[in-house]
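Check the record.
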Amino acid sequence: MSRRAGGRAARQAARLQAVVESVPFLTRTLAPLEVLSDEGLALVEENAETILERVGVEFRDAPDAIALLTDAGAEIDGERVRFPRGLARLLVQATAPREFTQLARNPERSVVFGGAHTIFAPAYGSPFVRDLDEGRRYGTIEDFRNFVRLANASPWLHHSGGTVCEPVDLPVNKRHYDMVAAHLTLGDKPFMGSVTHPQRARDTVDMARIVFGSDVVEQNTVVFSLINANSPLVWDSTMLGAARAYAEANQAVMMTPFILAGAMSPATVAATAAQTLAESLAGMAYVQLVRPGAPVVLGSFASSMSMQSGAPTFGTPEPALVLYTMASLARRLGVPFRSGGALTASKIPDAQAAYESANTMQPTMLGGTNFVLHAAGWLEGGLTMGYEKFVLDADQLGMWHAFANGVDLSENGQALDAFLTNEPGTHFLGHAHTLANFESAFYRSPVADNSSFEQWEAEGASDAAVRANGLWKRALAEYEPPPLDDAIQEELDEWIEQKKASFPDSDV
């Protein structure tokens, strides 16, 4: 049995090595799918302007934001900010970059936001983790580090992500030090910073200055972060404070409404899209007032809801239509767009997880999303980060890499010579063209089993999750972190130690 299992592992390794060609980000060759006409998109934009003008957005406990918006011409009523029609759009379009680069510790892994580019990042924010060995449990800092390692080891993920899981074994007010340090030292891909308090955002920037150098941070975007609206139509002081801290340092933020349609927005596609645009515009306008030209991304996260239980649902048609619409609106506005992911409400990596994840990734790719958060590992509506799910999702991302390349119309792709030198009725298996292309012609999954029933049964009759379990364990066992200068590591460690010692532990 061990010989057979070894054979299976060897075939998996061979398939993986045959297809791996790591790229820092995707450049799509296919035109994005549009679900609305220009007239339809203009109508949604007009509705968003009406929301901003007549309803407004609350900027809670944020007097600095209120002051900036007042000076810019907004109408203020307490914490309610109403934007004269067109003002928020004008503020964004006047200075926000259409594209920007996030520099990685390894410059070859830097990513470009916007245009025809797509960046895959792991799931984000889960308090729980799951694997086949231990089941569902609270995440730890070691789980966090493991997912950073897995993200950096995968050729299909371009980004290390942010809060890949919550390390609940560490104090809330200090865990960001270990999390950011993991991204900076265990990998060399771009990463996301802390947003749970403005000071934690500033700490993230300071840590990046130690690793990248202050001059590099001043002149480049090296940190990217998720700033969520408190929908409906509220930006709170925590998120605004973090956004300000990053913007002041010229680091990038994505201003993202998190909407459960039917509860946090009206239960229709057009209304959800209009609200998403209004909230995003208000947030991005504020960022541009803090520092004109600071990189921003229009974020959209909309899910449907079970009207019977109130639970979020994934893989349904309506959020897909919101995504397509918002991607188009971001292109019209002229800023990069974030959405999507391999999302599911399933608790385990089963058939439901597979079809819901596929249904959410398809509009993500066809719609032209620039930054894909939650691309690997998401389970249980985001409550759980799954080890096996991570591997299965990453395999699917490899397939999307192949799809994004589009149709090869080169001389080799057309293969006319193969037709002209092959007799009718003669198969192409032995033809020189097939032999020259067989290694790279088709995506070869390291997870999927395509053997005969008898061979599959003889090798243990394992399902996809079991095969994925072995693959993530192997990836972690073989992982070697990219080198980091000893002096930089020592300076970072000392800085963190001093910071942690300067105030007591807290659960907030």
User: Anything to note?
Assistant: The first strand starts at residue 26 and ends at 27. DSSP finds 19 helices and 20 strands in the chain. The chain has a mean pLDDT of 95. Residues 269-290 form the longest helix (22 residues).
